[in-house]
Specification:
With 466 residues, the protein is α/β, with parallel strands linked by helices. The protein has a domain at 91-109 and 225-424: Rossmann fold (3-Layer(aba) Sandwich). Helices cover 44% and strands 16% of the residues. The chain has 19 helices and 15 strands. The strands form four sheets. A six-stranded mixed sheet has the order 3-4-14-9-10-13, with helices on both faces. Helix 5 (112-130) crosses helix 10 and helix 6 (143-152) packs parallel to helix 7. The protein is globular. The protein starts with a strand and ends in a 5-residue tail after the last helix. The protein binds pyridoxal-5'-phosphate. Pyridoxal-5'-phosphate is lined by residues 110, 112, 143, 221, 253-259, 307-308, 386, 410-411.
Length: 466
């Protein structure tokens, strides 16, 4: 399997190459040169198989010769063996033709674990083969940092440094990072805001000498290896509900467009997907572009579903590439226009190519609370605010269709106790394996908002191997 850049000017790489590169050298994102297809019979044969087995079947189509078959099998078995539910991603019915796909049974209680747990192990394998190491550096306001730490913790060939704004992340989110004590895990509480953390991160990535010295690497969702493991649960959910004979619709609470793009990939591979519904909170750039063709950046407003509070949806570029018939020069021109004018308009033909498959809607803060409350009243289930955004939009847009509608439940409600309490009056409990989170010992280093100080800290501690 070979990969090409969405901007058309970067070298063609294999899976190992894109795993290590992250972003392409022309600023684009890597996608497969051709979509692998899965035949009708092969899809049917996935029904009832253990999750790790389906994961192996799907991932092997993308890893090609780059990862040994037995190695890949071992990686997915180990990664998904850590999940708190034997089905890994179980379905729960909430209405006659409506389901939730629970993606929050991983170590940090959000769907990002599904891909990160595989990514950390892939890194170790590939770096061992090359006798090399990386230093993963990231900035977080919440979910991504803890999922990355859990994934890199204890890995032989990687260290991780996560910057968070000191005193400005929720207690649950901070503790999910700072109570993980691998010798290769370094939490840095920066005396500043999330934007300051991002500026420090960017400065480190842009410093070529530093980048080479510490072998810096990122783990954000532009890495193709983070998309592939998310394709798997579209298959497991759809076959449980009757695919390939039945077409299933999915509603995806979206921020960076990675998760919903994985659904698009499943569709391109041959899974019968009736509709992919993109759900946004009040930061609704995705809803606006899909409904009107106008892609315009605005400011970000904080919401109860913070993991979707984004302005630039980086993975949308992968869909742009597809809707422009894989014309990298065209995508490059649009992205340049976005950088200078903060906006671009899709041409009607490109937009029309998506209709029929994609639909999009937004959910504001009031509607988020009302949906948490109504799902609780009707079913007794407690859902988190990100899931609520999805359920609200799924219900509004599905109309009278009788085909199954699956909303991706992206986080455990206990990660967002304040919003849940506002909606239903009680605080959700953490699952038993995390019940002592609030009393575990925390470890982090407070640093000033100063590039020199942060770089010195990374240099001094990067070599610490577990
Ligand atoms: C990251 C995240 C999302 C958004 O996923 P994207 O792939 O960025 O669209 C939604 N819900 C939760 C809980 C998340 O952590």
């Amino acid at each position: 399997m070979r990969y090409v850049s969405t901007r058309g000017r970067a070298p063609v790489l294999d899976f190992e190459g894109v795993l290590l590169a992250g972003l392409a050298t022309d600023g684009g994102l890597y996608v497969p040169q051709a979509w692998p297809r899965i035949a009708h019979d092969e899809i049917a044969a996935l029904r009832g198989r253990p999750y790790a087995e389906v994961a192996h079947a799907i991932l092997s189509r993308f890893t090609g010769d780059a990862i040994d078959d037995d190695v890949l099998r071992g990686i997915v078995e180990e990664a998904y063996g850590r999940f708190g539910h034997p089905a890994v991603a179980p379905l729960t019915q909430i209405d006659s033709a409506e389901w939730l796909l629970e993606l929050f049974h991983g170590p940090t209680l959000a769907f990002k674990d599904v891909a990160m747990q595989v990514l950390g192990r892939l890194y170790d394998h590939v770096l061992e083969r090359r006798d090399s190491r990386v230093t993963v550096i990231g900035a977080t306001s919440g979910d991504t940092g803890s999922a990355a730490i859990e994934a890199i913790q204890g890995r032989e060939r990687a260290s991780i440094f996560i910057l968070h704004p000191h005193g400005r992340v929720s207690e649950v989110q901070r503790r999910q990072m700072t109570t993980v004590h691998g010798a290769n895990v370094h939490n840095l509480a920066i005396e500043g805001t999330f934007d300051d953390c991002q500026a420090l991160l960017k400065a480190m990535f842009n410093d070529a000498a530093f980048r080479d010295e510490v072998r810096i690497s990122g783990v954000n969702s532009i890495n193709w290896a983070r998309i592939v493991p998310q394709v798997v649960y579209y298959f497991t959910a759809a076959v449980s509900l009757g695919a390939p004979e039945v077409a299933v619709s999915f509603c995806v609470p979206s921020g960076n467009f990675g998760d919903v793009f994985a659904g698009y990939v499943a569709h391109r591979m041959g899974l019968p997907v009736e509709r992919l519904v993109v759900a946004s909170n009040s930061n609704d750039i995705l809803t606006r572009v899909l409904n009107t063709g106008e892609h315009r950046l605005t400011s970000v407003a904080p919401t109860m579903s913070p993991s979707m509070d984004i302005q630039v949806s980086s993975n949308f570029e992968r869909l742009l590439f597809e809707m422009h018939d894989r014309d990298g020069a065209r995508v490059d021109a649009l992205m340049r226009q976005l950088a200078t004018e903060r906006a671009f308009d899709l041409d009607p033909a490109a937009l029309a190519s998506l209709h029929g498959l994609f639909a999009a809607g937004r959910c504001d803060e009031e509607e988020t609370l009302a949906t948490i409350a109504s799902v609780h009243r009707e079913t007794g289930l407690v859902i988190d605010p990100h899931t609520a955004v999805g359920v609200h939009v799924a219900r509004r847009l599905r109309g009278r269709r009788a085909s199954p509608m699956v909303t991706l439940s992206t986080a455990h409600p206990a990660k967002f106790p304040d919003a849940v309490e506002r909606a239903i009056g009680t605080r959700p409990a953490l699952p038993p394996r995390l019940a002592d989170l609030l009393t575990r010992e925390e470890r982090y280093t407070v640093l000033p908002n100063d590039l020199g100080a942060v770089m010195a800290h990374v240099r001094a501690h990067k070599g610490t191997v577990a």
